[in-house]
Amino acid sequence: MKMNGWFSSMLCLSIILLLLLKGALTRKSQDLHCGACRALVDELEWEISQVDRKKTIQMGSFRINPDGSQSVVEVPYARSEAHLTELLERICENMKEYGEKVDPSTHRKSYARVISRDGTKMDLSETKFDSDVSSSLKFVCESIAEEYEDELIEFFSHEAENVKDRLCSKRTDLCDHALYLPHDEL
Questions:
Q1: Which strands form 98-102's sheet, in the order they lie side by side?
Q2: In angstroms, how far is the first alpha carbon of the chain from the final one?
Q3: In the Cβ-directed half-sphere of 147, how many Cα atoms lie within 13 Å?
Q4: What is the pLDDT of residues 2-30, one digit of tens each?
Q5: 8 Å CB contact between 33 and 108
Q6: pTM score, two decimals?
Q7: Backbone phi, then psi, for 157, in 5-degree steps?
Q8: Per-residue DSSP letters for 100-133?
Q9: Concatenated DSSP letters for 154-185?
């Protein structure tokens, strides 16, 4: 009888530990996906802002109509589908410039730039920066860019407010806990 009670206790303990471990792994994956999405949006916004507003690209049909005209329009290059597609091909390389921070109270992970764009010194205290973090972030970023390419182009082809929240939380559900994340620029 003693052996049966011990076995039942160990089985219950094992099940509880497995459930806790599954929850921790799910949260880690969710934090990584959310962080990659938010970093991807930040990087795209920054890259778009670096393009000269006067630069345009011709869009439309290059065929000549029967009346001799063409249906070609010039659109701003920065938010053109061609430019956005080009950015999505290479933007995840920037994830090597990100590190991981763990909130001491919630134990949630977030990702922040560890290399500034303008050379200013950054506070890197409590930031983990290594190849495991950057390669994981890059892999997830590439997955998001591929899976949600149409949504990314749709959002960025027009200037929009709160793209991070609208894309990463509402459209993709990658950040269901976005209310608890800071909304400042990385």
A1: 109-113, 98-102, 127-128
A2: 61
A3: 13
A4: 556 655 665 545 455 444 443 443 455 89
A5: no
A6: 0.75
A7: -75, -15
A8: EEE-TTT--EEEEESS-SS------TTEE-SHHH
A9: HHHTS--S-HIIIIIIIIT-S-TTGGGS--S-
